[in-house]
Specification:
five-stranded mixed barrel; about 500 residues; alpha+beta; 15 helices; eight-stranded mixed beta sheet; 20 strands
C-alpha cells in the first residue's frame, strides 16, 4: 500500500508517541461527564464547573503558549482553550499537542467550562489525553469567500465511506437520528396498542408474501436451495392463526431487482397484522401513525420535499384505482376486456404486455399515468383480484379486492389488505399465480403449502399492512434519494 506524505508523517508521530511512553490507543475507560450541545444549551448550569469531554480534534490554532481547538463529540462541536501553563504535563503541550496531534485524532479533555472574551462558550483544558491516533487525514471542507470549494461531496465516495461522511458533512448524522426516531415512534404506537414485535425467518424455502424476484442461496447441510425473504407476510399471518391479537416485524427484505434513486436490493420494511380488522380500519390507523411520526421527527405534520410541502395530517384522500386512472387519463378500464386494456397499455409504451394478465396491465397503466401525480398522501383502493392474490374479494365490487396502496410524493409508501382467510379461495388464487408464471411472469407467487395448511386451521378476519421504512425516512427527512437514508447502500464493487 502506497502511503501519502501526510500518512507517512502521521505514522511517524504515532511511533514518537510510543517512544515517549504514550499509548496512542489506550484500553482504559475514559469517563465522559459532559457533551458539547448540553454545555452550550445550559451554560448557566455548567459555567465554572469541572468537566471531562472527548471527541475528534477538528481544528487547531496554535498561538505560542496558548491555543484553541475545536472538538467534535457524538452530539456536536465545542471550542477548547489549551494553555501551556495550565496543562499538567508540559510535554503534552510542547510536543504531543503542538507537534504530534493531527486533525481527526481522538482526545480527552479535563477542565472547566467558561465563556471567552469574544463570548464563545468553551472548555478551559487542564489535562489532555490521547485516545486514538488517526492515520488518514480527514477531507475537511475548505472555504474561500464563504463558498465551499473542497471537501467530501462526491455521492459515490460519501456512500462508500459513510464513516467519513458522518464526520465531515453537517446534517448527515441528523438524518439517521431522525430515522431512529421514526422506528422508535412506530414501535411505541404499536406497543401501546398491545401488538407484539416478533422475528420471522430471513432464509426461506419458498419466497412468498409478495410479487418479486428473490435472491437464491444454498444450504449445504440440508442440500437445498433457499431464498432471502422478499416479505414477512406469510409467517406473520401464521402467528395470527396461532392466536396473537396483533403482530409486527421491522426487518430487512431482499429483492433481486434494479437499483435507482428509490430502490435498494435490501431494504427495511415494517409489516403489521391485527385480528378482527379490515382495510378501512387500517386506513384510519395508518393516518394516525404517520401523523404521530411526522410530529415526533419534525415537530409538525408538514414536510418540505423539493418544491412540495407534504402534509401528513389526517385524514387522507381515498380513491379507487380505476377511478384514479379515469380521472387522470379518461380511460374507463372498468368497461374494457383484457385485450382492450392490453391495447391501451401498448399505446402508453408498456413493454412485454403479452406476459401480463389483466391486473398487471392495470397496474402498469396506473404506474405510467397516475402514480407520480399523487403528491399529498392518498389511499389508492380497490385493486383488481389478479394483482392481489392474498387479499379478500371486495364485499360489494365484483372482481376487485379490499386493498389499498398509500401514495406520497408520487411513490408507493404502504400496501395493505383485508387479508384473505378463505383457504379454498387462497389456493385457487395461488393456482392462478402459477398460470401467470407459466406465461413468463417471473414475479408471480408460488404455492406455499405450509401456509395453506395454517389457513385451513382457521385465521380470523385480519387486516395487514407493509410500510417501506426507507421511503418513509426519505419523506420525513426531506432527502432526495434512498441512498441518503441508508447508512450503507448497495454499491458496485470498487
Amino acid at each position: 500500500m502506497e502511503l501519502s506524505e501526510q500518512e507517512i508523517v502521521r505514522r511517524q508521530s504515532l511511533q514518537t508517541m510510543r517512544d515517549m511512553g504514550i499509548d496512542p490507543y489506550p484500553a482504559a475507560e475514559y469517563e465522559v461527564t459532559g457533551y458539547s450541545t448540553d454545555i452550550k444549551a445550559h451554560f448557566d448550569e455548567w459555567d465554572g464547573k469541572e468537566v471531562r469531554i472527548a471527541g475528534r480534534l477538528m481544528s487547531k490554532r496554535i498561538m505560542g503558549k496558548a491555543s484553541f481547538i475545536e472538538l467534535q463529540d457524538s452530539k456536536g462541536r465545542i471550542q477548547v482553550y489549551v494553555s501551556r501553563d495550565d496543562i499538567q504535563e508540559q510535554q503534552m503541550y510542547n510536543v504531543v499537542f503542538k507537534k504530534l496531534l493531527d486533525i481527526g485524532d481522538f482526545i480527552g479533555i479535563e477542565g472547566f467550562v467558561f465563556r471567552t472574551q469574544m463570548g464563545e462558550i468553551s472548555v478551559h483544558a487542564k489535562k489532555l489525553t490521547v485516545l486514538a491516533k488517526s492515520l488518514r487525514p480527514l477531507p475537511i471542507v475548505k472555504y474561500k469567500d464563504g463558498v465551499a470549494y473542497d471537501g467530501f461531496n462526491d455521492p459515490e465516495q460519501r456512500y462508500r465511506q459513510r464513516y467519513v461522511d458522518l464526520v465531515v458533512n453537517d446534517g448527515v448524522k441528523d438524518t439517521f437520528l431522525k430515522r431512529a426516531t421514526i422506528l422508535r415512534t412506530m414501535r411505541q404506537v404499536f406497543d401501546e396498542a398491545g401488538y407484539t414485535e416478533v422475528e420471522t425467518p430471513i432464509l426461506q424455502q419458498i419466497a412468498g408474501g409478495a410479487s418479486a424476484r428473490p435472491f437464491i442461496t444454498h444450504h449445504n447441510s440440508l442440500d437445498v436451495d433457499m431464498y432471502l425473504r422478499i416479505a414477512t407476510e406469510l409467517y406473520l399471518k401464521r402467528l395470527i392463526v396461532g392466536g396473537f391479537e396483533g403482530v409486527y416485524e421491522i426487518g430487512r427484505n431482499f429483492r433481486n431487482e434494479g437499483m435507482d434513486r428509490s430502490h435498494n436490493p435490501e431494504f427495511t420494511c415494517m409489516e403489521l397484522y391485527v385480528q378482527y380488522k379490515d382495510y378501512n380500519w387500517m386506513m384510519g390507523f395508518t393516518e394516525q401513525l404517520l401523523e404521530k411520526i411526522a410530529i415526533a421527527v419534525n415537530g409538525t405534520t408538514k414536510v418540505q420535499i423539493g418544491d412540495h410541502e407534504i402534509d401528513f395530517k389526517a385524514p387522507y384522500r381515498r380513491l379507487p384505482i380505476l377511478d384514479a386512472i379515469k380521472e387522470k387519463t379518461g380511460l374507463d378500464l372498468a368497461s374494457m376486456d383484457e385485450e382492450a386494456i392490453r391495447a391501451e397499455a401498448k399505446k402508453l409504451g408498456v413493454e412485454d404486455t403479452e406476459h401480463m394478465g389483466k391486473g398487471k396491465l392495470i397496474d402498469e397503466i396506473f404506474g405510467e399515468t397516475c402514480e407520480g401525480t399523487f403528491i399529498q398522501p392518498t389511499f389508492i383502493t380497490d385493486y383488481p383480484v389478479e394483482m392481489s392474490p392474498l387479499t379478500k374479494m371486495h364485499r360489494s365490487k365484483p372482481g376487485l379486492t379490499e386493498r389499498f396502496e398509500l401514495m406520497v410524493n408520487g411513490k408507493e409508501l404502504a400496501n395493505a389488505y383485508s387479508e384473505l382467510n378463505d383457504p379454498i379461495d387462497q389456493y385457487n388464487r395461488f393456482v392462478e399465480q402459477m398460470k401467470l408464471a407459466d406465461k413468463g411472469d417471473d414475479e408471480a407467487m408460488v404455492i406455499d403449502h405450509d401456509f395453506m395448511r395454517a389457513l385451513e386451521y382457521g385465521m380470523p378476519p385480519t387486516s395487514g399492512i407493509g410500510i417501506g421504512i426507507d421511503r418513509l425516512a426519505i419523506l420525513m427527512t426531506g432527502q432526495p434519494t434512498i441512498q441518503e437514508v441508508l447508512l450503507f447502500p448497495t454499491m458496485k464493487p470498487e
